[in-house]
């Protein structure tokens, strides 16, 4: 099956790539979770600048678990797997640990990336020194040592300092080609910037490109967002206008925008519906089609059945100002959070919670959510079901939960809402919400959720 170009795909990149035809892509850039044991937080902007409401966009800490054991077994049993020896070697060296789990995860996906590349194609693997040395060995195994082209050091200027070690201010980008004949248009870098780096002319594998600061215009607030200048350099060097570029971990779409701006075709995949919607809504408001994101009640039902967690995070982001909770269990069943703008000062913003249920409605789950909403002192709660809830008992409990006031307007403290309503364009009465990325009041309430809809 071939993919559609200029399209975004929602889901695990392995699931999508497995279905796609060999030798169909000119350039792959990937910036996967790093195993850097950090948790990327979206700082919920409010005037206090406090970190009371940090939400994890995704968790890049790897643990040895059942999934890792399965992947290891698959690769160790497949003697023809190109990373068979490398992974077995790492197994001996590292034992069963998070790093080995990560390397098996990457190996399974990198094999498909090689298969998808055209004979003249190239791949850039963006990582950091935590795992770059292991990943290079895995890349050598899969792409061939002789196809290794450069280890690019991206120095970004920001970074913590410590008395006990040198400042960490760079990432590693491993550049491999699929074969000997690959397209390469060596980037032109101003001599001044080369001098600044104290390099000799031509030695350009250290790239001094500032990372995005808080004031940067292109900043969307997505954790790990990369600067466009970095992606422009890669895409210009290793593809021609009209070529197909793939980013299997596209995040908020830096590579997608760069490819679009430079006249390349793009294909992006991300496991976070939120990231995909951010690209379509905020970064490139061009009506880019997204596959895997429910476009009608039927596909929403399938998502709820096949991937309940993804359904929940997609469903809660149908509400303006809400972002998904990344904890799959615990947290009292809260699936999404947001902040209500309270006049005159957003500093007093109040909590809003959402819960999404893909299965049949049951009163006890609503009661649990009422309890959590009260416990967390949230001003607003929204219980989202697939189909309308037609239970009188539920309606009664919601009515008894009371109301709250913002300015002159009163709102229900608890709301029953459904994905069926969403596809009918009906929304609960929403209080004014803050944009989770910039802390500003959302003006166009429907702007956030209209993107997941049928065009
Ligand atoms: C380091 S971020 C990419 C940031 C991106 N380069 C940008 O500039 O916004 C890694 C992304 O990989 C996504 N991700 C994690 N596992 C994935 C998987 N199995 N398939 C597709 N995307 C995945 C995460 O949701 C996250 O957005």
Q: Counting H and I runs of at least 4 residues, what is the number of helices?
A: 14
Report the structural category: alpha/beta
Q: What small molecules accompany the polymer chains?
A: S-adenosylmethionine
Overall CATH architecture of the largest domain: 3-Layer(aba) Sandwich
* CATH topology name of the largest domain: Rossmann fold
Question: What would you call the shape?
Answer: globular
Which stretches of 5+ consecutive residues score pLDDT under 50?
39-58, 447-455
Q: What spatial order of strands do you see in the largest sheet?
A: 8-6-7-5-2-9-10-1-11
Largest sheet: 9 strands, mixed
CATH class of the largest domain: Alpha Beta
Could you say how many structural domains there are in total?
A: 2
Task: Determine the strand fraction and express it as a percent band.
Answer: 15-25%
In helices, the fraction of residues equals: 25-40%
**What is the average per-residue confidence, as pLDDT, rounded to a whole number?**
86
How many β-strand stretches? Answer: 18
């Amino acid at each position: 099956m071939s993919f559609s170009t200029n399209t975004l795909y929602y889901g695990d990149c392995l699931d999508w790539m497995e279905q796609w035809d060999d030798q169909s892509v000119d350039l792959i850039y990937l910036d996967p979770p790093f195993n850097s044991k950090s948790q990327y937080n979206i700082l919920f902007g409010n005037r206090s600048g406090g970190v009371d409401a940090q939400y994890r966009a995704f968790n890049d800490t790897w643990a040895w678990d059942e999934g890792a054991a399965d992947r290891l077994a698959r690769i160790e049993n497949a003697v023809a797997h190109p990373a068979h020896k490398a992974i077995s070697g790492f197994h001996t060296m590292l034992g069963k640990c998070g790093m080995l789990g990560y390397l098996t995860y990457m190996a399974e996906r990198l094999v498909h990336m090689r298969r998808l590349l055209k004979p003249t194609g190239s791949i850039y693997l963006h990582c950091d020194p935590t795992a770059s040395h292991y990943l290079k060995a895995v890349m050598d195994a899969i792409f061939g040592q002789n196809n290794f082209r450069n280890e690019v050091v991206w120095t970004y200027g920001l970074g913590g300092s410590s008395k006990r070690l040198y400042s960490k201010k760079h990432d590693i980008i491993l550049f491999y080609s699929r074969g000997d004949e690959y397209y390469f248009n060596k980037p032109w870098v101003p001599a001044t910037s080369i001098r600044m780096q104290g390099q000799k002319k031509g030695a350009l594998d250290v790239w001094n490109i500032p990372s995005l600061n808080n004031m940067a215009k292109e900043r969307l607030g997505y954790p790990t967002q990369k600067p466009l200048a970095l992606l422009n350099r890669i895409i210009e060097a290793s593809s021609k206008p009209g070529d197909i570029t793939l980013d299997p971990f596209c995040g908020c779409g830096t590579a997608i925008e760069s490819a679009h701006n430079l006249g390349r075709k793009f294909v992006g995949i991300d496991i976070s519906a939120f990231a995909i919607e951010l690209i379509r809504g905020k970064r490139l408001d061009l009506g880019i089609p997204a596959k895997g994101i429910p476009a009608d009640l039927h596909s929403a039902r399938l998502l709820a059945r096949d991937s309940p967690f993804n359904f929940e995070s997609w469903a809660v982001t149908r509400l303006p100002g809400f972002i998904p909770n990344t904890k799959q269990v615990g947290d009292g069943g809260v699936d999404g959070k947001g902040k209500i703008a309270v006049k005159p000062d957003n500093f007093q913003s109040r909590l809003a919670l959402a819960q999404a249920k893909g299965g049949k409605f049951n009163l006890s789950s609503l009661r649990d959510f009422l309890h959590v909403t009260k416990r967390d002192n949230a001003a607003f709660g929204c219980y989202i079901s697939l189909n309308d809830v037609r239970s009188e008992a539920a309606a009664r409990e919601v009515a008894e939960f009371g109301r709250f006031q913002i300015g002159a307007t009163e709102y229900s403290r608890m709301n029953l809402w459904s994905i069926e309503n969403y596809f009918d364009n009906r929304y609960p009465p929403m209080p004014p919400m803050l944009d989770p990325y910039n802390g500003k009041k959302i003006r166009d309430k429907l702007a956030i959720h209209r993107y997941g809809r049928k065009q």
